[in-house]
Design goal:
This protein has helices at about 1-15, 25-50, 55-75, 85-100, 105-130. By secondary structure, it is mostly helical.
């Protein structure tokens, strides 16, 4: 019985852990980070400038859900670990903002956009003070 539980536990761990369970290299992590930040900023900005288009909000939310998944699978290198919670908050708030745009809930849309922008500011300040440049897109 113990062996069966151990096998199930190991299967769960292997299922949850990313392939190889190694940290991304700094260049790998930074390229993905640049992509996530670019989309979160520009995608939500596009939804905001077309706020009356609920279908656009639904489409952007579907895209944002994938970005949340990607961010959740990223394994930052040790020197960037403090940064990653801000990355998660940015993409999660982008997804929530798009959802609220799709249901015409401007109060909650604006709330999530404010959080997203503040997390962007914190992340960019961290990079600036750490003398780390984002790759140009």
């Amino acid at each position: 019985m113990k062996r069966g539980k151990a096998c199930v536990l190991m299967a769960v761990v292997l299922w949850i852990a990313p392939a190889g369970a190694r940290a991304d290299t700094r260049p790998e992590y930074m390229r993905r980070l640049a992509l996530l930040l670019d989309w979160s900023h520009r995608g939500v900005g596009w939804v905001e400038s077309n706020i009356e288009d609920r279908a656009l909000g639904r489409a952007a939310q579907a895209i944002a859900e994938r970005y949340v998944e990607v961010a959740g699978r990223m394994l930052p290198p040790a020197e960037l670990r403090a940064l990653h919670p801000h990355v998660i908050l940015i993409v999660e708030n982008a997804e929530r903002a798009c959802h609220f745009a799709s249901v015409a809930n401007m109060r909650d849309f604006n709330h999530h956009v404010r959080i997203l922008r503040e997390e962007e500011r914190i992340l960019l300040e961290f990079l600036r003070t750490s003398h780390i440049e984002l790759p140009r897109m």
